[in-house]
Write a structure and sequence with these properties.
Elements lengths: L1 E5 L6 H12 L2 E4 H8 L3 E3 L2 E3 L2 H12 L4 E4 L10 E6 L2 H10 L4 H12 L2 H9 L3 E5 L5 H13 L15 H4 L6
Helix pairs in contact: 1-7, 4-5
The structure holds adenosine-5'-triphosphate (ATP) and magnesium ion.
């Protein structure tokens, strides 16, 4: 099956996807690397801009019927059997992206996206089978075990596990107000 792991930049997609793929014995695919290999999209500054329909079309042709964990903040636009939306306290997103040297603008944009569930909403528009996992205060191993348990139990939908509106005050310094 095709498992798409998505979420706000810095939420832990790559870390979790690689470990999940390893534990399941699935192929790991970075969607960004795949797009670049296939020459889908173009670089705009330091960001790759892709046409999601073209990406989904190519991915389907190359991976349909295979067992893969696909990692990327656009992976919920693919025709996946299960979409895992990773969540993290927006303050963690702010801290991680600041540490990576992202601009204040870019950090703010992503903290705000996590705060108001942007990726979750997009994923729900695209796919019935969406499970959310809160990574806050958990190790990558714990997160992966939680995903494995959901898969084993056949859970295909579990949303509404976080509500960052309650922590709004903690992230005001990161917001572009
Ligand atoms: N429970 C957790 N799950 C995943 N990552 C975690 C967790 N706790 C801490 N981390 C750390 O958070 C960071 C997440 O980085 P990672 O590159 O995996 O994020 P990403 O979502 O792939 O980012 P990007 O969108 O930029 O590719 C890593 O340094 C990882 O060790
Ligand atoms: Mg990544």
């Amino acid at each position: 099956m095709i498992i798409a792991v998505t979420g706000t930049p810095g939420v832990g997609k790559t870390t979790v996807s690689k470990l999940l793929a390893q534990k399941l014995g699935y192929e790991y695919v970075s969607l960004k690397d795949y797009a670049m290999e296939k020459g889908i999209g173009e670089m705009k500054g330091d960001e790759l801009e892709v046409e999601v329909d073209e990406l989904a079309y190519n991915f389907e042709r190359d991976f349909k019927g295979k067992n893969v964990v696909v990692d990327g903040h656009l992976s919920h636009f693919l025709n996946a059997d299960l979409v895992v939306v990773l969540r993290a306290h927006p303050k963690l997103i702010g801290e991680r992206l600041t540490e990576r040297g992202y601009s204040r603008e870019k950090v703010g944009e992503n903290v705000e996206a996590e705060l108001v569930d942007v990726i979750l909403v997009e994923a729900l528009e695209e796919n019935e089978n969406v499970v959310e996992v809160d990574t806050t205060g958990k190790t990558p191993e714990e997160v992966v075990n939680e995903i494995l348990e959901l898969i084993e139990k056949g859970v295909r939908r579990r949303v509404g596990v976080v509500d960052w509106s309650r922590v709004y005050d903690d992230v005001i310094p990161y917001l572009r107000l």
